Amino acid sequence: MGLEDMFIKKVKANRAVIIIPEIYGINDYVKNMAAFFNNQGYDAYCLNLIRRDRIFAYSEEAAAYVNFRTKIGFDRYHEVAVFMEKLQGKYQSIIVFGSSVGATIAWRLTDNPACKGMIGYYGSRIRDYLEVNPGCPCLLLFAAEEKSFDINTMLPQLELKENIKVAVMPGQHGFADPYAGHFHVESGKKALDMVEWFLEDINH
Length: 204
Fold this sequence. Notes:
With 204 residues, the protein is of the alpha/beta class. It is built from six helices and seven strands. The termini are far apart.
């Protein structure tokens, strides 16, 4: 399977969002985000990066991570860029959205002229790609509590860049996913409010 095998939700809009899932694949959280973007006036394309017939359960986190590391990787942004460029002729603007590893892949697309905006939830591995200088508006929302690193060490470097709005939300990695164990009700709601504001801002 490839990127052609994807969950696609269209509302015949003139704008599109490419949703890049976490390590688990196109699960209910991803489909919820597609519905959210539909309501904001976007056609939503949820990419199938894991190339398997079923999604990973949250209880399979370790296996899902190994699958991502060994079979997918952050360099898949090249493939997503090709897909994004193919969509250009169909839409006035295209943005990318990702959570966790999906946010880091989305971040690596922000210097592509086809990308008109980027939204990332808890993309902790963005810290490995700080050489990227976005050419489009970006909204980066991080969790205050991260197991793997201290967000405060990365914030000063991000704040030096243009086109970026950064916020640190109460909670842990996964705060926006209502189906996961680290869901934070208030942060999840505030994140969606911030995304709505961001979309209104970039579309003026």
